[in-house]
Amino acid sequence: MKTRAAVLHQTGLAGPYAASQPLIVEELDLDKPEQDEVLVRIRAAGLCHSDLSVINGDRPRPVPMALGHEAAGEVLECGPGVRDLAPGDRVVMVFVPSCGGCIPCLEGRPALCEPAAAANTSGTLLCGERRLHLGGRDVHHHLGVSAFSEYAVVSRRSLIKFDPSLSYEEAALFGCAVLTGVGAVVNTARVPAGATVAVVGLGGVGLNALLGGLLVGAREIIAVDLNEDKLKLAKELGATAAFNAGDAEALASLREHTRGGVDYAFEMAGSVHAMDFAYLATRRGGTTITAGLSHPEHKWAVQHVSLVAEERTVKGSYIGSAVPLRDIPRYMALYRQGKLPVDRLMSDRMPLEEVNAGFDRLAAGGAIRQILML
Fold it and tell me: N or C: which end of the chain has fewer CB within 10 A?
């Protein structure tokens, strides 16, 4: 069958992207679903910084690649072996499928699935194959999903069924932004009630971490960003204090405000400078968590002695250390109860043809979560 998809042929093109057009909407050939695969009609897909990192070259991936990884859609056809989904089911896509048999999966850490990591790096589905083609040439899958497309064939292990009481655009956010941001607080850090928290970087993931802090009952939630509009939104959502990272006194002011730093600081900007800020904003004995993905060549230097003498903890968090089959239904239930108002983070809705302009807005730092309606 045919599908229209946004395809990246070259990384590192200069902005504005509305002019340079790194993503070209093209008609691709899409194979039928094979063993343990599903054909999905994509209905909504979020624009995420992880997509932008592939476009600008910070996250090296093979091209040509059909981008997009945060999405929700409708099941159209199930391949052989898929018995727990049926046409008409609504599904959220998860960008790390779980094989269920590697050591991390067996340990209950599917976010670290080893076959999935290999497949995502090489641009294939979990089975190692590609189902997209252009002029007889294979097109790589982005994180096993390739959601900036009308249709997608994905592994069954990339899908979580959800209740039709949620719209597709609401549900799409749970596949990445909510899973990563809330999960970093709930799963990775396990922030206890009454703790103090700082979130450095207020994109879709960072603001979800802020909502996660509110959810677990943090007594102080401090927002840090360069954008005043995002700081204002953070305060509206429940942040108890906000600091502009562009202010030379921001770090000193935060440390004074918290009497030496917070218990947990989350770096969500994918920047070494942001990581420095988050580490220095963490108190003695505290924990610094990073979920930001910077360029592979970027190194973060830490004062070795402070790890020991101050009993610091530094942790990475990938997809919020999630167990998607467990966490997505939980987070959706909390959203329906009004405890995770993630709908307030949706900033724009647009057609597929405006995808490059959407990434201009994301790169400029003003957008939070823009949704392609497909």
Answer: N
- Domain tally for the chain? 2
The DSSP secondary-structure symbol of 158 reads G
Cα torsion through 323, 233, 279, 181, rounded to 10: 10
Closest CA to 228 of 189, 204, 202: 202
* Residue 156 shares a structural domain with residue 13: yes
Q: Which residues contact 364 (CB under 8 A, 6 or more apart)?
A: none
Asked if 360 and 260 sit in the same domain, the reply is no
Which mean pLDDT values do the consecutive 10-residue runs of the chain (374 residues) have?
A: 98 96 98 98 96 94 97 98 98 96 96 97 97 97 98 98 95 96 98 98 96 98 97 97 97 97 97 96 98 91 93 97 96 97 93 97 91 96
Q: Which domain holds residue 40?
A: 2-175+341-373
Over its C-alpha atoms, the chain yields an Rg (Å, rounded) of 20
What is the DSSP secondary structure assignment for residue 13, as one 8-state letter? P
What is the Cα 24 distance to its own chain's centre? Answer: 23
In eight-state DSSP terms, residue 149 is: B
Q: CA 242, CA 231: separation in Å to the nearest integer? A: 6
Give the Cα separation of 366 and 295 in Å (integer): 21
